[in-house]
Amino acid sequence: MIDVDAIRAQFPILSRQVNGRPLVYLDNGASAQKPQVVLDTIQRAYGHEYANVHRGLHTLSTISTDNYEAVRGTVARFLNAPSEDHIVFTSGTTEAMNLISYGWAAPRLQAGDEIILSIMEHHANIVPWHFLRERLGVKLVWVDTDVNGDLDPQAVLDAITDRTRMIAITHLSNVLGTVVDVKTICVGARAKGIPVVVDGSQAAVHMPVDVADLGCDFYAITGHKLYGPSGSGAVYIRPERMAEMQPFMGGGDMIRDVGRDTITWNDPPMKFEAGTPGIVQTIGLGAALEWMMDLGMDNIAAHETALRDYARDRLAGLNWLNVQGQSATKAAIFSFTLDGAAHAHDISTVLDKKGVAVRAGHHCAQPLMQHLGVSATCRASFAVYNTKAEVDVLIDSLELCHDLFS
Fold it and tell me: Would you give the distance in Å from CA 151 to the centre of its chain?
């Protein structure tokens, strides 16, 4: 069980006020807040242990290198990857997707080849494939959700043709909260020799992730959603795919030898990590993942499921509120609009006056907005430190919005 009061006490920012009201932070889908252990880890790394990693032989460099490289094993445990050698550090999911696009897809795809996407994808899992469409003539094939916002895995598999070269799919929609049956997609795709790229940015913070069980080829996570620092992240890459990849960026530790006329790459995963990395960001990410694993991902999921159910029941009582996505297995993420002319930005502004922080806009998911027939929504996204009392504050604030705009 989760002791939410004890958890909240570990987040200094949750004790502050906004506009004279206690902060109700419901923008976790964009970025989660940071527990004290992460803040302390970052402060210690910068204040007492900082040096560049890998090539220094002095004490501080050794400490930094050991702390930095230890995170590779932490990420592997968090994702149940077979080996830490399958983990590449990135600045987040956006870099991971671009690494896959440039390093794996671009060298082997050609005009007319197809990449399957769901309509729910975040721009980070769309734009890199558009690069291939523009530069190579690759075709993007879209699979829609049903009326509840669910994605039928069979519909994804049915979209495979003899020109399909890759499936790029979210594990959990950042707008609808829909959990995608990635395992069924991976099993079906593997039987046809099609690699699957999974955007795990949202899923990894809400539920246990087991890449060995999923059977995916790539799985990307981003630190700032995982109670860690911005500028941190990682991607699991199946070793067969690693062997097929070319480096995305050059410089720093991704080389073994450089001469005037020759160059030798380092072994993976270092082969894909160019330049001075985000040392402290990555160390902070490791602290965040250890903190989550200590809480227990099953415990986190159970707490958030209870919040989801309570919020869903309370939101259902607002008959002038339009909630997008009604999947039975969704996460605690709710995107909504109000009847009438109130824009999502106006709603967000009113909620902010009550101390409630939500996201407003297209949520970097414009194809999905078009599919839903809206230009923007408000989104309330919950985390392990949120409470039912905060759901009540959200409801009261939405009722004020309705009174103002009706």
Answer: 18
